Predict the 3D structure of the following.
Amino acid sequence: MLERLQDASGDTLLLRHAVAPVSGQLTMELLNTFKAKNTFHHTAGSNRYARSTSARIVRGIQAYHMSGRGWCDIGYNFLVDRFGTIWQGRAGGSQLAVRGAHTLGFNSTSTGIAVIGNFEEVQPTAEVLTSLVHLAAWKLDLYGRRPSRRAGVFSQGSDKFAAGQKVKLPVIDGHRDTNDTACPGKHLYAKLPAVRKRAQARVDRF
């Protein structure tokens, strides 16, 4: 299924759906009151997949998160494949503040966006970076957030920040900023300053 979203400039963002909605999963407990930031991840899987297999990969991640980890749905809010296709992750509404399961201690204040692949090993493609810019600008603008700024949020407890600790983080950050992990991979993480700059320029044109 293809969903067409429109940003404040009138541009269309195409969002593909690969995972089946989980019946009855969206409750008030799974909605946040706001989103302070976007957190980027990588799935750390293969980098050599075909365009035609992306949907199957997304469904496989959903199955692992539900069966292997016991979560109600896929943990990420959105996923981007190496061709730049944007996939809906956790169900509940792409324009709502749906709480994911992707960043220990900070799920309640962040949107989780995962790029399919391992970016410890390869550079993200130009198509990936453009999709991240467009998706981040659209999502952050919904909540009046500035992609180039920082946001103060309270940790709910991670392996870097104790529960209740206030942390000032980039509005677009990487998983490693809040947890002891290499995610989203050194090559993608190095691109975050450029992504912030481009996303901010896009929001400024809205």
About this structure: The longest helix spans residues 126-142.
